[in-house]
Amino acid sequence: MALTGRTALLAAIGSLPVGLLAPSWTGMLAVNAPLSLAILCDYALAAPVRTLRFTRSGDTSVRLGDHAQVHLLVENPSGRRLRADIRDAWPPSSWPTGADQKASRHRVKVPAGERRRLTTVLRPTRRGDRLADRITVRSYGPLGLAARQGGHRVPWKVRVLPPFTSRKHLPSKLARLRELDGRTSVLTRGEGTEFDSLREYVPGDDTRSIDWRATARQTSVAVRTWRPERDRHILVVLDTGRTSAGRVGDVPRLDAAMDAALLLTALASRAGDRVDLLAYDRQVRVRVQGRAAGDAMPAMVDAMATLEPELVETDARGLSAAALAGAPRRSLVVLLTSLDAVAIEEGLLPVLSQLTQRHTVVVASVSDPHVDEMTKSRGTAEAVYEAAAGAQSQAQRRNTAEQLQRHGVTVVDARPEDLAPALADAYLALKAAGRL
C-alpha cells in the first residue's frame, strides 16, 4: 500500500544518507512536518557532488622547510548553485602538527556552469613524495539545513627535496677555489700537474717549486705556480645502513650526510670536476652517474629526496665492490658513514685497501655534540659517570680515525652543522696538494 501525507514525507526523509542532516534538526523530524518538508527541499536543491569536475595544477617539488602551492580548479556543470565545504586531503606530514585542519579545508560558492580555483598551501615536515588523497565535498542546500556528501580522487604528487642548508657556505668556498685556480691575485703552490705561471720566490716557498732554468735567465729566483687539476672524478658514497638512521640532535645522520654531499657537489661542479653519487647498504639504493657538471646537482637532489635509511647492517664488501665499479679510473671516493668502531674495524678496514690502492679516499662522519657536553658534566656521581662515558666514546672515535689515517684515508669528523664546510675544506686541501 502506498504511503501518503505525513507518513510518506517522513519515509522520504528517513531515506536520506546518515549524517547529511544538521544535528540540531534530527530530533524534530517526527513532530514537525513543515520543518521536515523544508529540510527535504533543501537537500533536493543542493548541487550534486558526483557531477563536479576537478583539475589540479601548481608546484610539483619543494625544498624541505619551504612551502608549496597546489591549486584545485572546481567546475560546477550542474544547473544548481554550489555551496560547499571542500577538504583537500594530504598525508599528515604535509604540514606541521595540527596545521592541516585549516590549510586543507575550503568553503566555496560556485554558480551553475562556472568554476573557482582553490589553493592548498603545503609545508612538508619530511623529505619524499607527498601524494594527494581524497577530495571530500559537502554540498549544502540554500537554507543550510541538509547537505549531500561525496568524494573524488584527483592524483597529484609533490616531491619534497633535501633543504641544502649548507648552501650559505658556498660563496666562501668558491672564493677559496678561485684562489687555488689562479683567478685572483693570490697564487698558490702545490703538487698539481697543470702549470700556471712563474713568480718571484718568497721565503717559505717549497724549494721543489723553484724553476732553475728560469732563475738562470733572470736576476731573481723564480718558482712555478700550479693550477689545480680539472675534470677529476669524484664519487660520493652514502652509507644508508642502520647507523644512518640515528638522530644527532634533531637531524638524522643521513640528512646531515646528504647536506654535506650537496655542498661538495656544488663546489666540485664549479671547479670543473665530475661528481657521481652512490647510496648503498646491502644493495644499491640510488646511483647517479655520467651527468655533466651542470646537471649533477639537480639529479642528486632529486635522487636523495626519497632516500631513507635501511635498518640493516651495511655490507662493506658489497659497498667497496659497488664503489670500484662506479669509479673505473683514479678518483676521489668520499664515503659518508659512521665512525662506529665495530662497523669500521669489522666491516670497512678489511676491504679498505681495495679502495686506497686505486683511489684517494675520504671518510666523513657526523659527531654527536651531546657527547662533548657529557664530558663536561660534574657535580654528582651520575654526572661523573656520564663524563667518563663521553670521554670513552671520544677516545674510541679518535682511535678509529687514527686507524683509517694509517691506511692513507683523510678523515673528517664534525658536528652536523659543521660537516658540510669541513668536507668542502678537505676537498679544497686535496685539490691544492694535487692529490686528486
TrEMBL record:
One Pfam family from the record: DUF58
Domain of life: Bacteria
Domain DUF58: 198-374
PANTHER family associated with the record: BLL2464 PROTEIN, SLR2013 PROTEIN
Record-given protein name: DUF58 domain-containing protein
Annotated organism of origin: Streptomyces thermolilacinus SPC6
